[in-house]
Amino acid sequence: MKFKKTRRIVSILFVLALIFTMNTGAFAERVSTEDGGSGACTQIFFGTGTTDSGAYFYGRTEDYSSSWRKITAVHPAETHAPGDMFVSSEHPSNFTWPYPEQTLRYIFCMDSYYNENNYPEPYAEIGMNEAGVVCSSSVTLSGMKSQISSSTGGADGMISGNNGLMEIDTPSIVLMQAKTAREGVELLASIIDAKGASGREGTVISDANEVWFFQVLSGHQYVGVKCPNDLIGFTPNMTCNVGPDNYVDITDTENFVCSAGLITVAQKAGTAVLDPNNPNRIKIADSYASGTSNFQAGRLRVGFGYIYGLTTQAEINARFPSPAYLDLFVPPRENKNYTLYEAMRMLACRGQGTAWSVANPSSNSTSIGNDNTQESHLIEIRPWMSPELATIEWLAQGPAEFSVFVPIFGNLVTNIHDKYYFEDHQSFRPADLYNNNTWHIFRQIYTRAKGPGTPTEATRAKYGNGVLAFWERYQKSLIEQQTDVDVYMTRILNEKGREEAERIYTDVAIAVQAEVYEYAVQMLSELIDYTAVAPSYDFEFSAMSDPDAVPVYAYLLADQLVDYAAPAASIEKLNGNKNNLTITVTEYYLSGRTSVFTETFSIDNNAAGTYQVGDYMVYVDTKGNTQIRECYIV
Known about the structure:
Strand order of the largest sheet: 3-6-7-8-9-10-11-15
CATH class of the largest domain: Alpha Beta
Number of helices: 12
CATH topology of the largest domain: Penicillin V Acylase, Chain A
Mean pLDDT: 89
Low-confidence stretches: 1-38, 424-434
Helix content: 25-40%
Distance between the termini: 29 Å
């Protein structure tokens, strides 16, 4: 990659220098009830055989309330004494679970302390730990069949009083200790076996090699499935059938983690739908879940329309007759090759350009991208990379439509940009939610970019297309630069070790986050001015006219790596048989920057020797008074 130095890059490097100096010294779908009701978060999945890069993509929108506040932080590793207990953040609740002796460091996006004054930490709905395990929790699932619900005297209702496992605790428990995806799934299974569950949720857990989807079906029944490579997945808050032919085989312990009573409980309730040719295979959604609601059916239209490029209801009906229960994994489109950018924009999709476009997605109904989205994330897993670099978390604050997904190796970072977690405990009030001093600035941008009053496609175009254009260019540049970032980080890991790689990458990640935040502040200011004047022309962000207004992501890492070093030497003749030898080593960095080291040594005439200059050992052979025979780095 070629880099062009500009004043903007110089200013970012200044910020980075400050960061180096300093560093050197919950998924909120709480509307779920025991026997029905759900939010509007949407889970997507793309197997390695369906993407253009051969990576896994999966992610989710977190939808709860446009006034709900999210913060992102790094939880440090901790040591715990025997008997120390994790205590649920839900109140009231008696749920506890033993801490491991040593917990892992993890980055997590959680609810604000102002929304939930809970302990040990508010709902950490998406995160990644230092072992490379990601937990995305959760999608609230369908209500139970009445024959299973406890409120109707069913076979296995949810644990009352919030005393079983809940989504609010799931990510923290997994991230603090799981070192593989399967270990995380088996941990959740063991907790439900011991304590039961108080909510029906779908949670995705991954590592550098595989992705698992774990569904809680009832108070004590669950299924974890290893996600396939050749299919895609999509669920709008629906309990889903999974497995080959959408049956779960309880004897297939390689691909499933199942509760012991998965089949017998459904049989007791009289709801079991089994394979007529194999009594060990069960359709879990048909057996446990209530049917499709109107809002779920609406998002099915939007999602399948996006996945397959369909624009009319007739096209979707022809391909997918309206289901009572959803099969999670479905075939990809004919040419496959879904891109990372496509997957990101699916999380912003309102059905625009189709017969069911939602111009004003003000409710959690039919739109994937809607007003109540607090954050969206897309996880990219490249199994061919080293474990340290295999997984990237792309996080967008606010509704994804007018936001940008910022990349981070969550297993390497030890800190994060302070605007992610800034909370002024003295002055913050709910009325200040949309202040410019945090990453909630993207909520303000969204509110203005969709246009004043009741938004229409026309107002979204007039106010928002200029926002979309800039973030599209910026986003695609981030994705493109990731190829160079992978090369640079691989070299940093190999040459400098993990600890130094963590330090360097943390500083660079914070600098990129600072850059995004600065653009957002500038964009909001211009949107406010534009709205006040309400001109006839469409809004255009001023940075769009600057071809150098692209991410400094790869540049900052290139600025840490020496491409090559060149030595030079000269001799100053002194009286007698002594001379001064001056050696200069010039480092040429991948970014184009140079750094010079110079040392002067007193030598005899015709001396030859090796001398240390900076980090380099340089051999110099001299002749006569001022001649240099040889000069090279040893």
